Structure formats: structure tokens, C-alpha cells
């Protein structure tokens, strides 16, 4: 391999690493910092899990990907969550939030659902936040 090819590969690797770091920063910023500012402005009652879960559904990006009629969400990437509590129990909903690739829903608006699209909210949200989202989604019958 020539010196110019080695330099090219080194530069490509550096650009790849920078792009990966920036992507990680973007998702950390999008799903945490911006959401936390929006939540602070909304000042949700964290003792009311359903109301807190509703706030989290709005601030943590769920509305961008999922349809949920009661929330006015019309996302077209993830499965439709309207009536989710009529179809699934709390354990399934919790696992879907914490480990979204554990069970891939069969149908999304664009066809079969794909793995790797939903963030691993189990490592982003606190246990109390996950509890609140589950409580909110269990109200969706």
C-alpha cells in the first residue's frame, strides 16, 4: 500500500470517528438536553405518573415517530400506539421502551417495522421516567 493510500485511509478513519462522535452528541443532545429544558418549562407533576408520562411522551421524541391519537401524535416511523393497552401488558410496553430491539413490532406505517430505529431509552431515561411512560401508555385503551 502506498503512502498516499495510507494517508487517505487514516483521514477517512478520522472523519468516520468524528462523524460517529457527532452523531452520538446529537442524540444525547436531542433526547436529553433539549427534552430536559422542555420538561423544566412544562414543570410536570412528577407525582402523577400518567401526567408525567404524557409530558415525557411529548418531550422525549415519541410523538415524532409514533401515532397516538390522544396525544395528537401522527408519527410515521414506529408502530401505532393508539389503544396499546388493549393489545399489550405493562411488561411488554416496558421492554419495548427499555430494549426496543428485543421484540420488533410486526407493522409500522411504512410496512414491516425495522430494528435499530428507536433509541435505547433504558439507558437514556431514569427508572421513574420509564415508569411514568408505561403508566401513561397503559391508559391508552
Shape: elongated
- Main beta sheet: 2 strands, antiparallel
C-alpha Rg, in Å? 19 Å
Query: What would you call the structural class?
Result: mainly alpha
Describe the structure.
This protein has 141 residues and is mainly α. The chain is built from 6 helices and 2 strands. The protein has a two-stranded antiparallel ribbon with strand order 1-2. Strand 1 (67-68) and strand 2 (73-74) form a beta hairpin. Helix 2 (49-59) packs across helix 6 (127-138) and helix 5 (90-98) packs across helix 6. It starts with a helix and ends with a helix.
Task: Summarize the topology.
Blueprint: H1 3-42, H2 49-59, H3 62-65, E1 67-68, E2 73-74, H4 84-87, H5 90-98, H6 127-138
Antiparallel strand pairs: 1-2
Which characteristics define this entry?
141 residues; mainly alpha; two-stranded antiparallel ribbon; 6 helices; 3% strand
Summarize the structure.
The protein is mainly α and 141 residues long. It contains six helices and two strands, in the order αααββααα.
